Amino acid sequence: MTSKLGLVFFPAFDWAISPTHPERQERLLYTRDQIVEEGILDLPSIKEYKPRLAEYADINRVHIGIPNIASLITDAHLVSAGGAIAAADAVLNREVGRAFALVRPPGHHAMRVVHGTRGFCTINIEAIMVEYMRRHYGLNRVAIVDTDVHHGDGTQDIFYHDPDTLFISFHQDGRTLYPGSGFVEEMGSPNAFGTTVNIPLPPGTSDEGFHEVLDHLVLPFIDDFKPDIIINSAGQDNHYSDPLANMAITAQGYANLAKKLKADIAVLEGGYSIEDALPYVNVGIILAMAGLDFKNVIEPDIAKRPRQSSSTAKYISQLVREWQDIWRNRERLKQQEKSKTGEFWQRKRNIYYDDSGLNESQIETVRICNECAGYITIATEAEGYSFGAKSAFVGVIPRNSCPHCSAAVRDAVLAAKRIGNYQNYFLQDKVQDIFEKI
Amino acid sequence: MLPLPLKRVSEMLLGIDVGGTFTDAVIIKNSSIIKHTKKPTTHGRLLDCIVTALDDVLADINSEVITRVALSTTIATNAIIENNIDKVGLMVIPGPGADLSCLFPVKPVCLSGYTDHRGREVSAVSDGEIGEAFRSLSKQGCEIFAISGKFAVRSPRQELQVAEIINKQTNAKFITLGSSLTGGLNFWRRTNSAYFNSAIWRCFNNFAQAVELALKQRNVFAPVFILKADGGTIPLEVAKKFPVETIFTGPAASVLGIMAMTLPEVPTVSLDIGGTTTDISLWNSGVPLFERKGIKIADYPTSIRAFRIKSIGVGGDSYVRWENGKLEIGPNRLGPAMALGGSSPTVTDALIVAGAIQFGDKKQAQVAMGQIAGSEMNVLEASNLVISCAVSKIHNAIITMVKELDLEPVYCVDDIVSSEQFKPRLIIGIGGAASGLVPYLANIMDLPYQIPCFAPVVNAVGAAIAKPTLEVNFRADTEQGVYTVAELGIKENIPSRRFGMSEAYNMTSKYLYRRAEQAGISVDETEIVHQEEFNLVRGFSTVGQILTCHMQIKPGVLTAISEMAEVNYDK
After folding, report:
1. Residue A297: which of A15, A40, A29 has the closest Cα?
2. Is the peptide bond before A105 cis (omega within 30 degrees of 0)?
3. Contact at CB, A13 and B117, closer than 8 angstroms
4. Which residues of chain B make contact with A275, given a CB cutoff of 8 A?
C-alpha cells in the first residue's frame, strides 16, 4: 500500500456565486500561490490529479433536484463533485494511500432535496463521493468527520437515516452561527440513531479544545464504529482569522488534526480567510496527509490568535463527558427511540436557502423497519420570488432495502400522484441505482 | 508540399551541435544548407571537436561573412555528470511552510525573514545574520553563491539585500539570485536552478571564453548565441550569467531542426529515432508543446523550461534478443547493426531483412535475424516480429504521452468543460532509423507521415536557426499600488491611478523589450504565455486587482530550410 497523497487541486478560477461573494474566483488564489511556491506538488510523496466531470447519475444517486438537478447547478458543481470522485478513485484504485480534494464550490450544506443554493452549497460533493464509492467499489461503512466551523447540516440530512454512515460534526455552536443547527440531540432517526454525532463548541475554542474533542470523542467513536473508510469534510473556517466565524484554531491545529484523524479522503469545505489562513492551513493539511513534516507551517500573524478562556475549556470538558455517556448508552437509547416511535417516524421542517432566497417546507417520513434502514418519503414545497412555488413528492428506497419497503415506497409515490397535490413525483431507488420521474 | 510561410533571410548562419556521439556543424545561406560536417565528439575536451568541426565546415569559406554563430552544447550537462562543478554557498530565506532544507543539492544556510504571497515583507532579514552566514560559508571554501527566497518573485528585495552584502566581500566571485532566473512561482525549483547555475558557472565560462577565442582566431566575428532547452537562443554574453539555461539542449535542437524543415499545422507527433533512443515530442498549431514545469537536473526539479520530450530506449542499434520467452528490444546498445559489422542483432538488421531500408550487408542482417528466428520461424517472420515489437514500444510511449497531456491539471471550469483531447494527425520522423520504422508506425496509427531530409545534421540546423528568446513575468497588485518584474529585480510603484489588464500588458511588453535590449537581442514577435486577472475583494467591496502577465519573445526559427520531404500517404 502506497503512502502517497493524491491531491485534486481545483480552485475554479473562473467561477463565483457573485463578484463579491466569499465564494469567488479569488478564494483559492493565495492557496494556489502558496502550494505552488512551496514546491510541494513536485515532491515524490504527492501526486496531483485533475478532476473529472461528475455525471448526473452520480448526483441523482444522492439528491432530488426540484424540478431537476441540471437546472439548479453550473458546470463548476460537476467539476467539484468530479474532483471528489477523482480523489476517491485514486485511493480505491490504490494509486495513492490517501487523497485531498482541494476543490470548490463546496457542498456540505446541500441536503437531499435541492431547490437551490444554501450556505454556498448546491450539491453535496462528499455525499456524492460516498455513494459513488458504495456503488462502484462496494464499500459499506463510512465515517464522515466534518471539521468545518459551520454545522454540516446537508451531510447530516442525507445520512440521517443511514445506520452505515457515522456522521460526526464539530462546529461553532448553532446558537451563535449559521445554519443554527447541529445540537447534541440531533442523533439520527430511530433506524440510525447514534450514527449522527454533533459536538457544538463555544466561540473562542482553540487548538486545545479542538483536540480534546478529537482525542476523547471523535477518534474513539470512529474506532468503535469500524468504518471501511474515513472521510474528512475539511472546512477551514475554524481558523482564528476567519471573517465568518469566531473560533481560534491555527494551521498547526488543523494539520495535527489531519495527522491524527488519518482520513482516507479529505474534501475542502468552507474557509474564507483567504489570505491569512487558507494558504497555511492547506499546506499544513497536505503535508500532514502526505506524512511529511509540517512544524514550520505557521501563520505570519500567529500573534493575533486569541487564547481559549478557562470557562470555554471547562464547558468543553463537560461536553466531552456528556457525550462519552451518551455514546456508551447509544444502543439502549436507540431501542428507546424505536419503541416510542410507531411504524413511521416523521419530521416537519422549514429550510431556508440563503443564497437563492427561498423557503422550503418539508415533511419527511421514514418507515421504522427491522429488516432494513426503512424507506423514506418526502413531501416538499418551496416558494421563491423568481419562480413562485414548486413542489414534489419523493420516495427513496434505501441501499439495503427489504422487499417490503421497496414495494411500499413505490406505492406511496403512485398514491400521491393519483391525489395530485404536487408538481413533480420522483422515486430514487438506491438498490437498483435508478432515479425515476414518476 | 506544405506551404513555406517563413521568410527567407539573406544571412550566413553557422550552427554547431555537440552531441553525445558526434559534433555536427552546418552553414546555412539563403535557406539552404551549403555545408555540413560530422566529427566525433571528444569527451573531456569539447573544444577540440568544436574546433575540428569548425575548421572543416569553414574550409574554403570566407569566415568573415558569417552573420551569426549558434551553439548547442553538452558542456553544462557534462559538468554536472562529471562533477566538474564548484562548491556553492547556498543561502535560502524559506519563511514558514514546508521544510525543504534536506531536498536541495547541498545543505543551505537558512536565513530568517519572510516575504509573503503578495510580496509584502513580513519579517526582515538581518544584516548581521547574512554576514555570519557568509563568513561560515567562506570558511568552508565557498566563493560562489546562490541566494533564494520564498516568494522572492513577488518581491526580490530580500534576495537583493543578501546579494548586496555578499558583493561587498572581495572573495565572492559570482552570485545567482533565484528570482533572476524566472519570475514563476516554485521556491524549490528556483533554488535548485540557482544552485546549479552557480555550480557550473566557472566551467561554462572557461568554455565560453575558449569558444570565443577559437572563433576569433578563425576570423569569425559574428555574434555568438547559445541554445536553451526551451528552443530559444541567448547571446553567449548572457549565457555566461545564466549557464544553467544551456542545459539539455540536444533534444531541443532536434525539435527546432524539424521546425526548420517542415511546419506541421495539424496536431503532430515528431520522432527523433537515433541509435539507442527515440525522442518523442508533440506539436499543436505548428508549435512544439512545452513541459508544464521545468526539467530535472541530476534528479532535482528545476525551473528551466523545456520542450515536452519523452525519451525511450528504442533505436536503430537497440539490442534484440529473447529473454524468458519474450522478445526484448533495448534499452541497451551493444554496438552497430550486424549488417554494419556489429556482433549482435539490432532493429536495423530487422529493417534491412524486411526490405524497409537498403544499406549494409544484407547477408549479415539475415544472420542476425536467423539468431532471433531459431527454429520457430523464418528470418522474414523474425524481422517482422522485431519491427512490430519496436514499433509498438514507440506507439505505447506516444499513447502514454497523450494520456499524460490529457491528465494535466487545469484550474478553470472552462478548461475542463471545453478541453479537447490531443489527437495526432501527422507523424514526422527524423534520425537514422526513422525512414525504416516510421512507415510501420504510421500504418498502425493510421496516420500520414513525413521524413524530412537533412536528417543527419538536423540538430546543428536547429541550433543555427533558433531564434533568440527571453521572457518576463510582470505582476501588478493594484491594492498595494506596486508591480514587480522578477527577472529584472524590479519592484516599483504603479504609475497611474487607472491600471488594468491592458496597462499591465503594455508594461510587460516594455520590460520585455528592455530586457532584450540589455541582452543585445532584437524582438521580432512576442506572445503571452499566461495571464491572470483577479479582483481583490475585502469586506464585500473590490479594493484592487492582481494582474499577472508572462510574456516571451516567441520561440521559432529564423529561416525555413527549403529542401522539404514529400508527405507520404502510401500506408
Report:
1. A40
2. yes
3. no
4. 117-118
Instruction: Enumerate residues 370 to 429 of chain B having a beta carbon within 8 A of any beta carbon in chain A.
Output: 407-414, 416-417
Our CA-based measurement puts residue B289 at a distance from the nearest CA of chain A, in whole angstroms, of 19
A109 is catalytic: yes
The complex's ipTM works out to 0.93
- Can you identify the CATH homologous superfamily of domain A5-331? Histone deacetylase domain (3.40.800.20)
Nearest CA to A391 out of A427, A429, A358, A421 is that of A421
Contacts of B410 in chain A (CB under 8 A): 50
**Count of CB atoms within 10 A of residue B374's CB?**
9
- Please report, for chain A, the start and end positions of each structural domain, with discontinuous segments joined by +: 5-331, 343-437
pLDDT 10s digit of each residue in chain B, 571 long? 344 444 444 689 999 998 877 899 999 988 888 888 988 888 878 889 999 999 999 998 888 899 999 999 888 888 898 888 999 999 999 999 999 999 999 999 999 999 999 999 999 999 999 999 999 999 999 999 999 999 999 999 999 999 999 998 877 899 999 999 999 999 999 999 999 999 999 999 999 999 999 999 999 999 999 999 999 999 999 999 999 999 988 888 889 988 888 888 899 999 999 888 899 999 998 889 999 899 999 999 999 999 999 999 999 999 999 999 999 998 888 989 999 999 999 999 999 999 999 889 999 999 999 999 988 899 999 999 999 999 999 999 999 999 999 999 999 999 989 888 899 999 999 888 899 999 999 999 999 999 887 667 888 999 999 999 999 999 999 999 999 999 999 999 998 778 999 999 999 999 999 999 999 888 889 999 999 999 999 988 999 999 999 999 988 888 888 753 334 433 3
Which residue type, as a one-letter code, is found at position A174? G
H or E element that contains B322: strand B318-323
The cell 541582452 sits on which residue?
Answer: B519
Distance from C-alpha of A434 to C-alpha of A424, rounded to nearest angstrom: 17
Q: Which three cell numbers stand for residue B330?
A: 533495448
